[in-house]
Amino acid sequence: MPQNEQKFLSDLESDDAGARFAAWRGAGEMTAEVIPQLGKLAASEKHGVAKAAREALHTLVHAVGRESGGRRVEVVRRLLELAGKAHALPVRILAFRLLSLVAGEESAPSIARWIADAGLREEAVFCLERIPGPASVKALAAAYKEAAEDFKPRILAALGHRRAEEALGLVLEAMRSSNKEIAMAGIKAFGRIGKKPAAAPRYPALSGLSDWQQMEHMDSLLRYADAQVKQGNHAEALSVFKTALDRPEQHWQCAAIIGIARMGTAEAAAAIFPKLNSSHRTVRITAANVWKGMAKDAAG
Q1: Long-range contacts of range 150-155, CB-CB < 8 Å, 24 or more positions apart?
Q2: DSSP string covering 169-213, please?
Q3: Contact criterion met (CB below 8 Å) for 157 and 148
Q4: pLDDT tens track of the chain, all 300 residues?
Q5: 1-103: what CATH class?
């Protein structure tokens, strides 16, 4: 190891807080060779030393974040090693957090295997969720099949956050699950993905859902409908929005009215018109406002 890196590591272990601070601030100039030792120091019982080592890891990773090869590739390789069983759990968790910043698609399979580890599965999914490209989505979808039942909702959430259209089949299957938590995670992912399936989807039944779950159910449908409007699938969007229009809750009716108005079509106007005479004041006002807006847009 070069002399400057030996001094760097020595300063991190120093009893002098100033020396530790200066060392971690300069960590961006180090090579990936220091990462194994930083992992050991990050687990130190000396709080100051452990903090300095963790900060040094952060500094080094951020320094290579803009690079596309060379040192960044080696840093990722060393972080994957740091995530292994040879290191303390807090250090492994930190490794996954740092990998989420610099790892590429080629690392997805190595990261995904830790979804089977109850102590690291959250970190592994968080990491994969942030790695761009289809490989990380493929790894998440593959891990879902073998994942513990109580963790499948988390993977579905990750696929939803990624708006992973390639995972739509898996999400539709989850929506049909007898496990309510999985079914609800499925519909939330479906709403975020926003892609119209080839066949009509089967949404989770409202019966047996808590008030909160019923709210999430409708919110997901409205997300999906909004996506259909943006994609020009007005008939599909209107059929979903009408579900909200028929609900007794005023806020769902108002949300549907606003969503329908964005279509700006004759069919949209026809769906909104009856709500101008709603028995609910808030609904009437919302309908009147969007009606005026649609009329102005048509005239302009």
Answers
A1: 150/181, 151/115, 151/121, 152/182, 152/185, 153/181, 153/182, 153/184, 153/185, 154/121, 154/122, 154/125, 154/185, 155/115, 155/125
A2: HHHHHHHT-SSHHHHHHHHHHHHHH-PPPSS---PPPSTT--HHH
A3: no
A4: 577 889 999 999 999 999 999 999 999 999 999 999 999 999 999 999 999 999 999 999 999 987 777 889 999 999 999 999 999 999 999 999 999 999 999 999 999 999 999 999 999 999 999 999 999 999 999 999 999 999 999 999 999 999 999 999 999 999 999 999 999 999 999 999 999 999 999 999 988 899 999 999 999 999 999 999 999 999 999 999 999 999 999 999 999 999 999 999 999 999 999 999 999 999 999 999 999 888 877 776
A5: mainly alpha
The whole-angstrom separation of Cα 133 and Cα 142 is: 15
Could you state, in order of their start, the residue ranges of all structural domains in the chain?
Answer: 1-103
